[in-house]
Amino acid sequence: MDTSPRTPHRMDPAGGCPHADNARLLERGAVAAVVLPGEVHGMAVLGHEALRDFLAHPEVAKDAAHFTALREGRIAPGWPLATFATVRGMTTADGDDHRRLRSLVSKAFTMRRVEELRPRVEELTAELLDDLARAAGRDGGVADLRRHFAMPLPMAVIGELLGVDAEHRERLHHLSNQVVATDIGPEKALAANRELIAVLTAVAAARGERPGDDLTSALIAARDEDGDRLGQEELIGTLMLMIIAGHETTLNLLTNAVRALCGHRDQLRMVLGGEVSWADVVEETLRWDAPVSYFPFRYPVRDLTVDGTVIPRGTPVLAGYSAAGRDRAVHGPDADRFDVTRPGRPDAVRHLSLGHGAHFCLGAPLARMEATIALERLFARFPDLEPALPETGLVRDASFVGNSVRALPVRLGAPRG
């Protein structure tokens, strides 16, 4: 048993493509000791099977009360990952608290409710494709697909679902991007967190004065009806988590899928020809280039042995989704290959990129629906779309949490239809 892991791997605050480091770490084992920004020591679970078991383990908590270094005051103010640990909401709650908070929002994400949103997603997609074409027309045939299409679609959907006025959405995206950044300095991190809370507090106040048929109004009603069901801090924390998770994941998924398809034109032709489905494209992208690379945090409530490595009680643990997606022990010797025809696994767990267990992504059906519609309509209209820069020329997100690029300039080619 490996009770003393090798020299810890330093997580690069600047992010970058994770796959080469992931491969090296997986060669050493399914669990790795890591050093986080600020010289905070933690662990990462990388292997598919180890991660699947860890995510569902009954003695692994999400509440930062179990985070030893934080509890003992050894985490400096403005630590870039602090929000992931300290925000009050579903992703930092356990047991009855988690079930209480999740039940307050789960009705908005049922399969039936998601299907009711389909016409609006299709309408928004059509409008944004027009915007993308206009942007390309203004800029010599090149437009940033991320800015004009991949970001505003999920932001508009989650914004409408929550009742967030359009005037706030671009600012909320900017602040969300700073919250998930891992290279941000303490002063900027604190300022971004304060401003995000202020904007969301203003959104909640507006909805309190003018309630509507939206999730924020429903949450405010729950707060006002019974403070034990939802407190003010939990209300703002829930809005923060839903804004960030509700658009950042889908934004990266769409961006990564377009990059993958443009880099594998033979597979794009198969999808356009109807040989495989757009849903297959979404699932293979989630596996091959997970939109969230390393998600913070979980904490063992006792010393826990995972795949032969001891993770001490109270250690902050990253869920290594991007590594698990290319784990050869599970996905075969060609795990590094993007393949939309890849057969599903017998246990139906094709990947873990949307989580597993009690904290499985509540918005997974919505993200899948948005991505499927967006990709199908994008390539139906612009089948010759191609990146305007080589992959090596694209600037990566400054985060080891999110996994994508900051911009994706594309040439649309001749439209069809």
Automatic annotation (TrEMBL):
<keyword id="KW-0349">Heme</keyword>
<protein>
    <submittedName>
        <fullName>Cytochrome P450</fullName>
    </submittedName>
</protein>
<dbReference type="GO" id="GO:0004497">
    <property type="term" value="F:monooxygenase activity"/>
</dbReference>
<keyword id="KW-0503">Monooxygenase</keyword>
<dbReference type="InterPro" id="IPR002397">
    <property type="entry name" value="Cyt_P450_B"/>
</dbReference>
<dbReference type="GO" id="GO:0005506">
    <property type="term" value="F:iron ion binding"/>
</dbReference>
<comment type="similarity">
    <text>Belongs to the cytochrome P450 family.</text>
</comment>
<dbReference type="GO" id="GO:0016705">
    <property type="term" value="F:oxidoreductase activity, acting on paired donors, with incorporation or reduction of molecular oxygen"/>
</dbReference>
<keyword id="KW-0560">Oxidoreductase</keyword>
<keyword id="KW-0479">Metal-binding</keyword>
<dbReference type="InterPro" id="IPR036396">
    <property type="entry name" value="Cyt_P450_sf"/>
</dbReference>
<dbReference type="Pfam" id="PF00067">
    <property type="entry name" value="p450"/>
</dbReference>
<dbReference type="InterPro" id="IPR001128">
    <property type="entry name" value="Cyt_P450"/>
</dbReference>
<keyword id="KW-0408">Iron</keyword>
<dbReference type="GO" id="GO:0020037">
    <property type="term" value="F:heme binding"/>
</dbReference>
